[in-house]
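Researcher: Going back to the complex we discussed earlier. I've cleaned up the inputs and rechecked each line, so this should be the final set. Can you rerun the prediction on the complete assembly and write out the structure?
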Amino acid sequence: MSNWFSRLVTGLSKTSNKLVTGITDILTKRKLDDAVLTELEDLLLTADLGTETAGKLTQSLAKTRFGKEVTDEEVREAFAVDIARVLEPVARPLSIDPTARPFVILMVGVNGAGKTTTIGKLAKMIAAEGRSLSLVAGDTFRAAAVEQLRVWGARVNVPVIAGAENADSAGLAFDALMQAKKRGDDVLLIDTAGRLQNKDQLMLELQKVGRVLKKVDPDAPHAVLLVLDATVGQNAHAQVEAFKAMVGVTGLVMTKLDGTAKGGVVVALAEKFGLPLHFIGVGEGVDDLRPFTARSFARSLMGLSPEG
Amino acid sequence: MFDALTEKLGSALSKLTRRGALTEADVTAAMREVRVALLEADVALPVVKDFIAKVTEKAVGESVIKSVTPGQMVVKIVHDELVTMLGGDPNSQEMPTLGGAGIDLAAPVPVGVLMVGLQGSGKTTTTAKIAKRLQEKERKRVLLVSLDTYRPAAQEQLAILGRQVNVVTLPIVAGEKPEAIARRGLDEARKGGFDVVIYDTAGRLTIDDAMMGEVETVRDIVKPHETLLVTDAMIGQDAVVTAKSFNEKIGITGIVLTRVDGDARGGAALSMRAVTGRPIKLIGVGEKVDALDTFDANRIAGRILGMGDIVSLVEKAAANIDHEKAEKLAARMQEGKFDLNDMLSQLQQIQRMGDMKGLLGLIPGIGAAVKQIDQSKLDPKAFKRQEAIIQSMTPKERRVPDLIKASRKQRIALGSGVTVADVNKLLKQHQQMESVMKRMKKMGGLGALLGGGGMPGMGGMPKMPGGMPGRGGFPFGKR
Ligand SMILES: Nc1nc2c(ncn2[C@@H]2O[C@H](COP(=O)(O)OP(=O)(O)O)[C@@H](O)[C@H]2O)c(=O)[nH]1
Ligand SMILES: Nc1nc2c(ncn2[C@@H]2O[C@H](COP(=O)(O)OP(=O)(O)O)[C@@H](O)[C@H]2O)c(=O)[nH]1
Ligand SMILES: [Mg+2]
Ligand SMILES: [Mg+2]
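Model: Rerun complete. Updated structure for the full complex:
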């Protein structure tokens, strides 16, 4: 088992311990009846799956097993299969079109979600594939945000393009794309300031970044990644909705899955939006970014060994 | 942040208020909706259950029978329970008056404040906000110390923010470990005669034993008088896990909820307060350094329920309302109908209720609408004028406002002693109200919002000239 994988497993299984104990508690040698189903539904709710998705999953379990004697293991397996089925279609890698030069990736999300950190991790991954790239310090608002990206750039040995303090981020993005194009870079990774999706003004500013990029390349940005923090609850729906409407999100990244938060809301998001979930963040280190795999995630969520 | 929860609870409860006598089954049915609403608002499940149990117990029983209507009583119980669980006194009319931005400074100087929390929750920003408050409002000399040696440029971030708010930050020494920085900070605070020293720490996960151990060590070095857990308002079910662990391992004295300027329903406020028993002291309402507010349980609970100070509103309304008319109006509005007769009877109801501004102020959620109402419309004379305009119309015109063309307008203006422009304004206003009614009817929300028990819905009725159409829906009619 590679290092990252064991990290993911430890992280996720720690987070699902409670879930597992819960299910074990309520299902030891019990008939699957309404009372048990309610308790199972509760367990899914505590993983942030949301009332609708939790209800659906529980109903689907009830259909096949209602009235039967079931062990906790069986129930977990069954839930994991159902959850994986929902997640399967969105477990798609980020594919970088080599003909787009550069392939522009715009990183968006609410404050503190992990955009800058994810850019650092992603940059290392992309550079390791032998592609040339640079990073754009598009967060011109938060104190030391530019400096933070500079540190990441130095860490992964990738150049960082930054503007003057409080510079217009759209203008910066435009200049950076011109430069990258001239150099013939493969990828351009653009960081943006965090913004809450209900702030119209800030969302319009973000939209402007997208518009300005199109002046240089009508297809840019080629990918718009929305970064979600695993602790997020049902507000994730509003986040996806708003960012999707404003800047055409093409994929998701979920960070901080190494903590106690289960990130179960992605199951509901997968059902509702079907947006690809490319990566998960499992730590603050440069190597802590992993492709998302439906089965492992679902199994880990249910406290089962990811590969079993 | 609680607006969405407001709607949910509003509709759940208005269904309840529409019924007559309250049975246990009624309460249970309403509580099912309250449960979903709370869960969707990210209140943690155990807290939801606890809440429901308490409210159910209180709602089914004697106190309900004594009330004006059973529904109102339940509304009040839900409201009061929310306030209580949020740490407030439901009967208090006062704003909390904690000194120094809610920070307790009653300790020998330098008073230590330790900021802890998950990664990216807003600790550094909040540190600067609190420092600014203490320095400017409390005239304290504050020293800021960053112990975040992990996140790239975190110490620089605090230094920059410190400069922005004119607060001294401990000079950065490259390579120094958090424990050593803490000692140096405390030392500097003592020597430099600082009143308060705020230690900003790196974000950490509660299952990261090494990092939790580190902050424990720091705590033992600086012996903080306040340890504040900073969490963002968008957090879901994990709120209880995180809050509980931080409290058990580090021992927190209070909670700061950030990003309350977002549209998250913010059930975390309830969850964290419930599992830690620690007060939510402050809320972050923006990225700027002055975007910090004192937490007010009454205000927040009122917002959750969308009915403000329900008690005094009910009392005032009950004393003044014309029940029969109100019932009729409510019934028509439920059907999405709203002609000039309805507007007239509404105008009359409003005037009978007296102090408009006072009443409006009691209704949270209507804030936006209030802003749009120009002051003249709150003027009793304006109401009288509008009443006169409608009274100068023929019954047919009142039923079919579209009939009112230029010549008729002239006549109506003359009849009511106003200008044609005034007539136009009133017609426009009616049109707006009518379209809101239609929209709400389409959304299926009007019944739920206004129902027999209009109050919960009032917060959900935007842009109502005069502001009080929901009043027509007060549940004072026949049982
Ligand atoms: N534990 C953990 N922390 C993370 C992860 N991703 C980001 N962070 C931390 O979250 C905080 C905010 O990240 P940052 O990239 O600055 O967020 P941004 O505001 O969206 O750019 C920092 O302390 C990061 O180290 C992750 O996957 N796991
Ligand atoms: N909208 C909003 N943003 C906030 C608030 N508090 C902090 N932030 C932002 O959240 C992000 C992370 O904040 P920071 O203080 O660096 O978090 P830390 O990692 O916990 O120290 C930054 O982009 C801040 O500007 C708030 O109350 N409202
Ligand atoms: Mg950033
Ligand atoms: Mg910080």
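Model: Worth noting: The radius of gyration of chain B is 27 Å.
Researcher: Good, that matches what I expected from the previous run.
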